[in-house]
Amino acid sequence: MKKIAILGSTGSIGTQTLEIVRENPDLKVTALAAGSNAALMEKQIREFMPQTAVMFEEKAAAELKVRVGDLPVRVLCGMDGLLELAAMEGYEVLVTAVVGMIGIRPTIAAIESGKTIALANKETLVTAGHLIMPLAEKHGVPILPVDSEHSAIFQSLNGEKRERVSRILLTASGGPFRGRNRQELASMTVEDALKHPNWSMGKKITVDSSTLVNKALEVMEACWLFGVGLDQIQVVVHPQSIIHSAVEYVDGAVIAQLGLPDMKLPIQYALFYPDRRPMQGKRLELCDIGTLTFERPDMETFRGLSLGMRAAREGGSMPTVFNAANEKAVALFLNRQIGFLSIAELIEGCMDHHRRIENPSLEEILQAEAETYEYLESIKA
Ligand code: NDP
Ligand code: MG
């Protein structure tokens, strides 16, 4: 029996993780955490019977306590609750599927208590990779990728020597606005940005896919996960999302993982690694698909990608500023307070204003986040 806990159980990755639990009777859920959706959390508790449940928002935790008053589940709240869940005994794998930098501290607490991390929450590695990766090594804790591209890379590295890798080919669908020019982008609405051609995901990452900020975050995530330099990663736009990413070796061989776009595969692979479990579902029929195409990303139109590459090059606290500015700008865009192109403009404004710190501590990262939020508020109008 493998026992797991999920941070962000009510979200897109969280609910798909629970589908895998449903299909695999040797997985057991020990703890669940979410932000505010007490109604869905109640349903999940009744079905999966965890020992502990956390709602980040106090009001939601109070509501949940009433809803599950008849059950033997402990209900916690806030960051204290997330940290207690991360460090508690009684489970082996923490699935980090919250959205945003809120995942950093619980991930650190879980590593320090020896938990394997199945990582979907890329913002944690982007901003604190220099703290997380050495900490995981120190505690002998694996960080297993859930992000589809990184899972594909991880699968393509299987059995090979890391020093024989020459490049990582990180694929990108290009998002719903691929091929558009800046003038067209200026009028794109929230509804347009949320229409992803291949994947159904949470709102924040769907907007990040439309700006290509998601790809920039994934480049940084890959650098940390696989210990490669920026110059070893090539972003390849591949609109069909069939090749989930690939690794080129020193002899020129390219090994890739292919499949229909479905997050359940990378989630399940992380949960059972190094085993590969059977999974039901539609299979990839290459002859039905016929054509796979590739192109270079348009870094001039999609400034989210070029700004992210700049943040990655500059390093230190700059990826935190890039990420925090994006989190805030995307929230404003989803709230219809700013236009689509303002997302990248605000990120750039925050990055230009920031005084970079080399090798920031956790406190400095959280401070850079808070300062970025504050500065962005002051320039957004
Ligand atoms: P969703 O928005 O669908 O879900 C986010 C989850 O986080 C919800 O359960 C939400 O709870 C919870 N949450 C939000 N704030 C807090 C908080 N302060 N404390 C505790 N829980 C909180 O996001 P996704 O599932 O799409 O994405 C999750 C992560 O996985 C992101 O980092 C994303 O980049 C990454 N990822 C996602 C993919 C996908 O296919 N969706 C693919 C690859 C990576 P509630 O709803 O109750 O407020
Ligand atoms: Mg991805």
Automatic annotation (TrEMBL):
Chain ranges of the 1-deoxy-D-xylulose 5-phosphate reductoisomerase C-terminal domain: 143-226
InterPro entries in UniProt: DXP_reductoisomerase, DXP_reductoisomerase_C, DXP_reductoisomerase_N, DXPR_C, DXPR_C_sf, NAD(P)-bd_dom_sf
Top-level enzyme category: oxidoreductase
Source domain of life: Bacteria
Pathway: Isoprenoid biosynthesis; isopentenyl diphosphate biosynthesis via DXP pathway; isopentenyl diphosphate from 1-deoxy-D-xylulose 5-phosphate: step 1/6
PANTHER family per UniProt: 1-DEOXY-D-XYLULOSE 5-PHOSPHATE REDUCTOISOMERASE, 1-DEOXY-D-XYLULOSE 5-PHOSPHATE REDUCTOISOMERASE, CHLOROPLASTIC
Name of protein: 1-deoxy-D-xylulose 5-phosphate reductoisomerase
Organism: Candidatus Eisenbergiella merdavium
